[in-house]
Amino acid sequence: MKQEWKLSCESDLETVAQTIAEQAGEQYCIALHGDLGSGKTTFVKHLARVWGIADVKSPSYDIMHVHQGMRTLIHIDAYRLKGKSELFLDDVCKPPFCLAVEWPEYLSLSIPFDIHLHFTIKNVTERWIQAT
């Protein structure tokens, strides 16, 4: 599935998160690509709200957060890993869960992602997300 969304405000990002949440299967992996500040963590916050999870913060320093709601959401920020560490998800989480990984290119393990979201900042008021 290839799809694009133009974001002019945060409610547009909320709409995209709702769309992805509705299509996500019981076991679903999302790769989040994009520059710092492009909206990856904010997207995960909106995704989490759809599943009844509040108070999602960036796992930049902790690397991984596990949230429980109507679904289990595992949120990973691999920016600081840069391929140097492995995460042992099998030891931490039992399926089913939704996995959202920021900076997946920095993980040294291969995850079969169901969708890749590419976040792009066009200017101060315009961002784009492309799904592949």
Task: Summarize this entry quickly.
This protein is of the alpha/beta class and 132 residues long.
Structural class: alpha/beta
Q: Enumerate how many helices there are, as a single number.
A: 3
Q: How much β-strand is present in the residues?
A: 25-35%
Largest sheet: 7 strands, mixed
Uncertain stretches: none
Mean pLDDT: 86
Fill in the CATH topology. Answer: Rossmann fold
Order of helices and strands: EHEHEEHEEE
Secondary structure: number of strands: 7
Task: Note the overall shape.
Answer: globular
* Distance N to C terminus: 6 Å
CATH class placement = Alpha Beta
CATH superfamily: P-loop containing nucleotide triphosphate hydrolases
Strand order of the largest sheet: 1-7-6-2-5-4-3
Radius of gyration: 14 Å
Helical residues, percent: 10-25%
Which CATH-level-2 architecture?
A: 3-Layer(aba) Sandwich
Written overview of the protein:
The structure is a single chain. The protein is 22% helix and 33% strand. Helix 1 crosses helix 2 (40-50). By secondary structure, it is α/β, with parallel strands linked by helices. The chain is globular and about 40 Å long.
Index terms:
132 residues; alpha/beta; Rossmann fold
Describe the secondary structure blueprint for this structure.
Blueprint lengths: L2 E5 L2 H14 L4 E7 L5 H11 L13 E5 L3 E6 L11 H4 L5 E5 L12 E9 L2 E6 L1
Parallel strand pairs: 2-5, 2-6, 4-5
Antiparallel strand pairs: 1-7, 3-4, 6-7
